[in-house]
Specification:
Low-confidence stretches: none
Largest sheet: 6 strands, mixed
Radius of gyration: 16 Å
Shape: globular
């Protein structure tokens, strides 16, 4: 039954900048709302930046979608902020930000917890560098952060800037399983599949799809996770 599943999304929203060059946060809200996702990991989110008309994007999305939210600053631009945001229909508890240094810009992982039907579930949201050299160190720090979930159920979502056959993914602990669409599907406008969802439980009963959109230069990835496995 549908209510027995947790629906999650990862979406690099490109500060609301669409393929048509227009910045429209309402289109991002529409993609999320129409998906029915209950937990959403967003990357490239602006707060008070000139290119996005000084809108506090995560606050506006939270209000419009009636979802709880938290934010991790990866880059400060004067009064503006840029980073990752997590939205949830459940309160986001015990929030923690892990900073991953980079030469061009820092990256982050945003860690929060939800309680869903009595289950404590860890949510990790990250966006790694486009540079292989920088990403190597960032991925090592990410793996260390993931271990803080212990034996609790956890979900890892994000823009990893690498496809799943990249050797770095072999460094994930063996219990982390990727939830992937049945067929390889591009998640970036250039044809690459670099946005992924993982769960630290056996990969059975899952369903994942890519939602194509022109609201960003990325497409959204949505997965249904049976609550029975999140024990």
């Amino acid at each position: 039954m549908e209510w027995e599943k947790l629906k999650v999304m990862t979406f690099n929203m490109h500060h609301g900048g669409g393929l048509d060059g227009k910045v429209d946060i309402n289109r991002i809200a529409d993609v999320i709302g129409e998906s029915g996702a209950q937990v959403v990991a967003l990357q490239e989110v602006d707060r008070y930046n000139v290119r996005s008309q000084f809108v506090d994007q995560v606050r506006k999305l939270g209000k419009k979608l009636r979802m709880h939210w938290c934010f991790a600053t990866s880059l400060r631009l004067g009064i503006g902020r840029y980073g990752n945001a997590t939205l949830s229909v459940w309160p986001l508890r015990k929030r923690k930000v892990y900073v991953f240094p980079g030469l061009s810009e820092n990256r982050t992982a945003l860690h929060a917890q939800i309680v869903c039907r009595g289950r404590n579930i860890h949510i990790f949201n990250t966006h790694l560098s486009v540079s292989d050299d920088e990403r190597r160190g960032q991925f090592r720090r990410l793996c260390k952060a993931l271990r803080t979930a212990g034996d609790d159920p956890a979900i890892l979502l994000g823009d990893f800037n690498m496809e799943f056959d990249h050797p770095l993914f072999r460094r994930l602990d063996s219990h982390w399983q990727r939830i992937a669409p049945k067929r390889k599907t591009a998640t970036l406008a250039n044809g690459k599949e670099i946005d992924h969802i993982f769960v630290n439980r056996p990969a059975w009963g899952y369903k994942a799809v890519v939602i194509k959109t022109e609201a960003s230069d990325h497409h959204a990835v949505v997965a249904d996770i049976p609550l029975d496995v999140l024990q």
